[in-house]
């Protein structure tokens, strides 16, 4: 949704499931999705930065992977040509 209809992830089922859009997605919905991704990413970054966070390796790896994927989507969205 964030990337718009022309952007299609290559072999990434996570990004396809959550971030691919259809031609009928309004620009406002994409903007809200982008806003919420930024908020989620900010929360992830805060948890990862906490020295006293009691999270296991599996959770840390998951959060780092989510952060990386969200960054890629948000950075890619800057290159999408909007009508």
Instruction: Count structural domains.
Output: 1
Number of discrete helical segments: 3
**Largest sheet, strands/sense/barrel:** none
- Mean pLDDT, rounded to whole units? 79
What would you note in describing this structure?
The chain is mainly α. The chain has one domain (13-77). 61% of the residues lie in helices and 0% in strands. The longest helix has 23 residues, at 27-49. The radius of gyration is 14 Å and the shape is elongated. 11% of the residues are buried. The model has no long low-confidence stretch (mean pLDDT 79).
Give a quick rundown of the structure.
The chain is mainly α and 83 residues long. It has helices at 13-19, 27-49, 57-77. The protein has one domain (13-77).
Question: What topology does this entry show?
Answer:
Elements: H1 13-19, H2 27-49, H3 57-77
Helix pairs in contact: 2-3
